[in-house]
From TrEMBL, chain A:
<feature type="domain" description="Cytochrome c">
    <location>
        <begin position="44"/>
        <end position="185"/>
    </location>
</feature>
<protein>
    <submittedName>
        <fullName>Cytochrome-c oxidase</fullName>
    </submittedName>
</protein>
<keyword id="KW-0479">Metal-binding</keyword>
<dbReference type="InterPro" id="IPR036909">
    <property type="entry name" value="Cyt_c-like_dom_sf"/>
</dbReference>
<keyword id="KW-0408">Iron</keyword>
<keyword id="KW-0349">Heme</keyword>
<dbReference type="InterPro" id="IPR003468">
    <property type="entry name" value="Cyt_c_oxidase_monohaem-su/FixO"/>
</dbReference>
<feature type="region of interest" description="Disordered">
    <location>
        <begin position="201"/>
        <end position="221"/>
    </location>
</feature>
<dbReference type="Pfam" id="PF02433">
    <property type="entry name" value="FixO"/>
</dbReference>
Automatic annotation (TrEMBL), chain B:
<dbReference type="InterPro" id="IPR036927">
    <property type="entry name" value="Cyt_c_oxase-like_su1_sf"/>
</dbReference>
<feature type="transmembrane region" description="Helical">
    <location>
        <begin position="439"/>
        <end position="461"/>
    </location>
</feature>
<keyword id="KW-0472">Membrane</keyword>
<feature type="transmembrane region" description="Helical">
    <location>
        <begin position="295"/>
        <end position="317"/>
    </location>
</feature>
<feature type="transmembrane region" description="Helical">
    <location>
        <begin position="224"/>
        <end position="244"/>
    </location>
</feature>
<keyword id="KW-0679">Respiratory chain</keyword>
<keyword id="KW-0249">Electron transport</keyword>
<feature type="domain" description="Cytochrome oxidase subunit I profile">
    <location>
        <begin position="197"/>
        <end position="520"/>
    </location>
</feature>
<keyword id="KW-1133">Transmembrane helix</keyword>
Length: 221, 520
């Protein structure tokens, strides 16, 4: 080890190899997936809401990747939805899979909690709904008005959370965020072929049966 | 499809084995062979077998502040000092943000009216400041100080390195402001908008250039082990960061794999090599004896590069990405035992034979404890990648505890030790109040212990409960709360320790010159 340049070249080659394995090859495998036909692209408002989700850092407490039933029945039981597949994320720029569940998984929150009013109340003050919640309140996504205009959305609140003499009105950013949350719904059925592209390491028997089907369908040996 | 992936996996193994074989061949043919002579190359005559710690009352060195290397240190003196000061600044601000986020997790209505301090932003600013500010800048300071010493030649182009530090610092501050104001790229560890992260890439290249130029002017035949890690890390980081930040290229689950390829490599191929290399230089220097087995360090270096670079996808175990990819990363995570054990034998082997020095030197306590935490957190990390354990720890605070055991217990402690060693040499005078070093040490050690123990236990319970369909989310949330409060206590002690550290640093800077450099 007497040649710095040799060390640098070796180091670069190893990183190139790792990048090939971890980024490039999987990239080819999952980058240009066809959409399932059920999933629709986000609307302009939902995309704006998605930006609010990103810039408030929701991802640091909420994942968007339910686990398979083979790994745990808990996710399905809680209503978080079926195990997700790469095709569920084709419109996600950037991805928001998350790695933390201080709060629940949100990939199907739109199906589980479709009410706009519920979300607005919950965002303004989570403890107005769950007194045990540790989610931050987001009062800055709302404004206080004495006389809300006709087209203002007034947030419903229990009396102890109501500011005296004012009504709580949702700002556009809150409405956008809720529109995004309502759009989160991947409860449509998924084909085995798509399922095969997700991690099946916990699924035991299930995996071999499904991969058999994939083989039969595609005619590969 | 199944067959092709099996082939891919086999190929990956074959390549790994061939690389290993090549390495073994190189060692036996003597290409790598350095042996004890190479291990001793960091010492001058008369430096072995005596304690060298300017912060210790036991240090009896005659030329206490390294008159031998004064000429070599001189050229990089001010740039190292600037980098150390910047790192200290980011440590303080970064830990305040960490503390704020920690409190907000169990006091969700505290300061909730301020959008720029909301948990999701404060936590992200914390991560970016401590990683790219404290750990990275402190590491660069150590690189700029150690590299000229191991190559026995003054630092080339110190002004360019200074510019690099300035560009990096301004970029990071701009990035933190952007995140605070809600402008984020939204990918974990890569939140700083790409328009701003260009500064970080340019900044680090401005530091790498002088380092490489210094290496080419070296006046020793052998390249000491610390320099391998430093040089490689300075190449890896700009590559990683540049690829990860190419705008518009990455999306969907492909971006998720890229995300964790980057995020684990920024630890494994950037701050980890920095920490290991610092310990490889300072532990032998302080004790006055060469590392245990120099040849083993070669194995440690190349296996770290090979295995660590492919562990990232263990952050997506059970996720919507192909099974083979997850398996690949799990295998490499377990293979990480190889480099970790190699480093452990070298560093702990030397230390355990010289426990007298541990008692006499607080600087060494910081550094060796850091090295020990590297072994511990790496073993833990390897096991956490296993499906049986990952299914519990994934998505929980256990991971956060693990991250702090690594980034704090390992690298931060080593960097703090490096401050205590480097500054007296830079100024040619001893630390004014050695008692404060002791205080700092115990505050952060007790703090991180509380932090890691409580958060690991709480996180584990959280993980078990998340797997149980009968446990409601309410129960899980109520149960985790006390552990989050303990974490705030641990974090408070750590932060207090940092302020003691910073105060001592400040009075060291302001102290009138007691000795002239190299005059003893």
């Amino acid at each position: 080890m007497n040649r710095p340049v040799a060390i640098l070249i070796g180091a670069a080659l190893i990183l190139a190899f790792a990048t090939m394995a971890l980024v490039v090859i999987p990239g080819f495998q999952v980058h240009n997936l066809e959409t399932t036909g059920y999933l629709e692209d986000y609307t302009q408002q939902e995309l704006r809401g998605r930006q609010v989700y990103i810039n408030q850092g929701c991802i640091y407490c909420h994942s968007q990747q339910p686990r398979s039933f083979g790994q745990t029945p808990a996710d399905m039981t809680k209503g978080w939805g079926r195990a997700s597949t790469p095709a569920d994320y084709v419109y996600d720029k950037p991805h928001l899979l998350g790695t933390m569940r201080t709060g629940p998984d949100l990939l199907n929150v739109g199906a589980r909690l479709p009410s706009q009013a519920w979300h607005l109340t919950h965002l303004f003050q989570p403890r107005a709904i769950f007194e045990w919640s540790l989610m931050p309140a987001y009062p800055f996504l709302f404004e206080l008005k004495q006389q809300p205009a006709a087209d203002d959305l007034v947030v419903k609140l229990p009396s102890q959370f109501k500011p005296a003499g004012h009504q709580v009105v949702a700002k556009q950013s809150a409405l956008d965020l809720v529109a995004y949350l309502q759009s989160l719904d991947r409860t449509y059925p998924v084909a085995d072929k798509e399922h095969y592209l997700r991690d099946q390491g916990f699924d035991g028997q299930l995996e071999t049966e499904q991969s058999q089907e994939v083989k039969n369908e595609s005619g590969e040996g | 499809m199944h067959t092709s992936f099996s082939l891919l996996l086999i190929l990956s193994f074959v390549v790994s084995l061939v690389a290993l074989a090549a390495m073994v061949w190189a060692i036996t043919r003597g290409h790598f062979f350095g042996g004890k002579k190479a291990a001793l190359s960091i010492f001058e005559e008369g430096e072995t077998d005596v304690l060298d710690d300017p912060a210790s009352v036991y240090s009896t060195r005659t030329h206490q502040f390294d008159a031998v290397r004064a000429g070599i240190d001189k050229s990089g003196r001010s740039v190292v000092l600037v980098f150390l000061s910047v790192a200290m600044f980011f440590l303080l601000v970064g830990s305040l943000y960490g503390l704020l986020s920690s409190f907000k997790l169990h006091l969700p209505d505290w300061l909730s009216q301020y959008e720029f301090l909301t948990f999701g932003r404060a936590r992200t600013v914390h991560l970016n400041l401590v990683n790219y500010g404290w750990l990275s800048v402190a590491s660069l300071a150590v690189v700029l100080w150690v590299i000229p010493r191991v190559f026995r030649t003054p630092l080339r182009r110190p002004r360019m390195a200074l510019w690099g530090g300035l560009i990096w610092t301004l970029g990071l501050i701009a990035g933190a402001l952007a995140i605070s104001l809600g402008w984020s790229d939204g990918v974990e560890w890569l939140e700083i908008p790409w328009q701003i992260s260009v500064f970080l890439v340019v900044g680090v290249l401005f530091v790498a250039w002088p380092v490489i130029e210094t290496a080419t002017h070296r006046e020793v035949e052998h390249v000491y082990v610390s320099a391998w890690y430093f040089l490689a890390a300075l190449l890896w980081f700009p590559l990683l960061y540049f690829i990860a930040k190419i705008p518009g290229l990455h999306f969907g689950v492909e971006q998720a794999t890229l995300n964790w390829w980057f995020a684990h490599n920024v630890l494994g191929l950037w701050v980890t090599p920095m920490g290991i290399a610092t310990a490889y230089y300072l532990i032998p220097k302080i004790i006055g004896k060469p590392i245990f087995s120099y040849n083993l360090s070669v194995l440690g270096f190349w296996s770290l590069a090979l295995f660590y670079s492919q562990v990232g996808i263990h952050h997506l175990v059970g996720g919507p990405i192909p099974t083979w990819l997850v398996t690949l990363s799990i295998v490499h995570s377990i293979m990480m035992f190889v480099p970790v054990i190699a480093v452990a034998i070298n560093q702990h082997g030397l230390m355990l034979k010289n426990m007298w020095a541990f008692k006499q030197s607080y600087t060494l306590r910081f550094i060796w404890l850091g090295a020990l935490m590297y072994t511990l957190s790496s073993f833990q990390g390897s096991l956490e990648a296993l499906r049986s354990i990952n299914t519990i720890t994934h998505f929980t605070h256990f991971t956060v505890a693990h991250a702090h055991l690594g980034a704090y217990g390992f690298i931060s402690l080593i960097m703090m030790g490096a401050f205590y060693y480097i500054l007296p040499h830079l100024f040619g005078r001893a630390w004014p109040k050695p008692g404060l070093i002791k205080l700092h040490f115990w505050l952060v050690v007790v703090g991180i212990t509380i932090y890691v123990v409580f958060l690991s236990v709480g996180g584990w319970l959280q993980g078990v409960e998340l797997l149980n369909p009968a446990t409601s989310f309410e129960t899980i949330t109520r149960n985790i709360k006390p552990y989050l409060e303990w974490r705030s206590l641990g974090g408070s002690l750590m932060t207090l320790g940092h302020f003691v550290f910073a105060y001592h640093f400040l009075i060291m800077l302001k102290q009138p010159k007691a000795h002239t450099r190299g005059g003893e």
